[in-house]
Specification:
The chain has 14 helices and 17 strands. It starts with a strand and ends with a strand. A hairpin with a 2-residue loop joins strand 9 and strand 10. The chain is about 35% helix and about 25% strand. Bound molecules: NADP nicotinamide-adenine-dinucleotide phosphate (NAP) and L-homoserine. NADP nicotinamide-adenine-dinucleotide phosphate binds next to helix 1.
Length: about 425
């Protein structure tokens, strides 16, 4: 059968892995899809750049239209990243009837509905497995494996860079800035790592997972986000002492028809399977009404794991071409979006306070919790090793977010409290 021609947009970390897999696994791939897969053109920014992969120079171009307008190209694999000009390239490729595989969560989280609609109109496929959790086939799992169930909760470590940083800080006492540099050198971080450490990358992925899991369009603006840049070594040490691991968790929950999606550093009980997901590994815990608890684990970033998902999508597109069923992959969003308010979101909290060490302090603090109906699981006071004051560590029972915000606001005006040193959600 006629070979399938692929146009590759980008030859960085992921693009290099895609070329390695397509070339290295060609025999297996062509046996599965019934024809050879041929990379016909590759868009790069700088064709003269030194690359750690041998590619025929003739393939490289810096002109996107050499790829997008090439009538021989059947599938565009987009691994260049970003929104602008990438979105324009993808929409144009779809208009020309070319199928698209992308690893771009920024694009799918922000413009997924528009891209999928364009694909539907032009009877094209858009696959984006690598956009969430690198090498873990979680999108396929939600769309196919759980199509029979009603998902209640998706809880994930979906950013490899931050998990790598938190693990090294926790296990080796490494400094935040040094580990971030290491993650960048290993190709895990985004071109602007702020989106990793400030939780935006995870938020985009959670918007995609929430959309697929709850059948409603979850936008980036619906995700409450807090990153790890303010997490201190001391917080990680406290977490360990109390039987928790600090993780950047994405949590999407549904109760009846109302949903909430957050990304925040969270203290996860060491008895929960997510607590032992370390390094660049990601994991997504999915709770379905019928299936109960499930968890999916694997490398969340890096050249070959991510490329595995990209090329698996390519295989899926080629199979659809062979079967004549392209354009039917768009996910059905059929539920109206209803977001929970702060008083409908409840969880346990860890609070660390720096207080004056004198009579009646504890009583005043517990009085504020009582006033806002927040019940406490444990309270520990200890001398602060660095000054004459004391530290109070509080774990609450499940409390609603609105009440907790009022408690913390009230603490700011309480004379006995010198500072609220840390506040984290507690899970598991
Ligand atoms: P990368 O290493 O920075 O590579 C980007 C590639 O795109 C480079 O080859 C670059 O060309 C090319 N490029 C960028 N902007 C361009 C433009 N305007 N015109 C032409 N070429 C352009 O990025 P990456 O880490 O492979 O990530 C690619 C995509 O995969 C992103 O959407 C990212 O979020 C996603 N992703 C990455 C990972 C990961 O572990 N890295 C995992 C999952 C998903 P030059 O080579 O000439 O500079
Ligand atoms: N920067 C991302 C991460 C790449 O660290 O998870 C994978 O999407």
């Amino acid at each position: 059968m006629k070979p399938i021609n692929v146009g590759l947009l980008g030859l960085g970390t992921v693009g290099t892995g895609v070329v390695r897999i397509v070339e290295g696994h060609q025999e297996d791939l062509s046996s599965q899809v019934g024809s050879t897969i041929h990379i016909r053109k590759v868009l790069v920014k700088d064709p003269l750049k030194q690359r750690n992969l041998k590619v025929d120079e003739e393939l490289l171009t810096e002109n996107p239209w050499d790829v997008i307008n090439d009538p021989e190209i059947d599938v565009i694999v987009e691994v260049m990243g970003g929104i602008d000009p990438t979105k324009q390239y993808i929409l144009e490729a779809l208009s020309q009837g070319k199928h698209v595989v992308t690893a771009n969560k920024d694009l799918m989280a922000l413009h997924g509905p528009e891209i999928l609609e364009k694909a539907r109109v032009h009877k094209c496929d858009v696959y984006y497995e690598a956009s969430v959790a690198g090498g873990i086939p979680i999108i396929r799992t939600l769309m196919e494996g759980f199509s029979s169930d009603r998902i209640k909760k998706i809880m994930g470590i979906v950013n490899g860079t931050t998990n790598f940083i938190l693990t090294k800080m926790s296990q080796e006492g490494a400094a935040y800035a040094d580990v971030l540099k290491e993650a960048q050198a290993l190709g895990y971080a985004e071109s602007d790592p702020t989106s990793d450490v400030e939780g935006l990358d995870a938020a985009r992925k959670m918007a995609i997972l929430g959309t697929l899991g709850f059948h409603t369009n979850v936008g980036l603006e619906d995700v409450e986000v807090r990153g790890i840049s303010q997490v201190k070594k001391e917080d990680i040490a406290y977490a360990k002492r109390l039987g928790y691991e600090m993780k950047l968790l994405g949590i999407a929950e549904r109760q009846d028809d109302q949903i909430s999606v957050v990304v925040q550093p969270t203290m996860v009980s060491t008895s929960h399977p997510l607590a032992s997901v370390n390094g660049v590994y990601n994991a997504v815990y999915v709770y379905g009404e019928a299936v109960g608890e499930t968890m999916f684990y694997g490398p969340g970033a890096g050249e070959m794991p991510t490329a595995t998902s990209v090329v698996a999508d390519l295989v899926a597109v080629i199979r659809n071409i062979r079967l004549g069923v392209t354009g039917q992959t768009a996910h059905h969003v059929y539920k109206e979006k209803k977001l929970k308010s702060d008083d409908q979101i409840a969880y346990k909290n860890f609070i660390l306070l720096d207080v004056h060490d004198k009579a009646g302090v504890l009583a005043q603090i517990t009085q504020v919790f009582a006033e806002f109906d927040v019940s406490l699981e444990s309270v520990v006071q200890q001398p602060n090793p660095h000054n004459p004051d004391a530290e109070i560590i509080i774990i609450t029972h499940e409390a609603n977010q609105a009440s907790m915000k009022r408690v913390l606001e009230h603490f700011k005006s309480l004379d006995v409290i010198k500072s609220i040193k840390s506040a984290y959600r507690v899970e598991g």
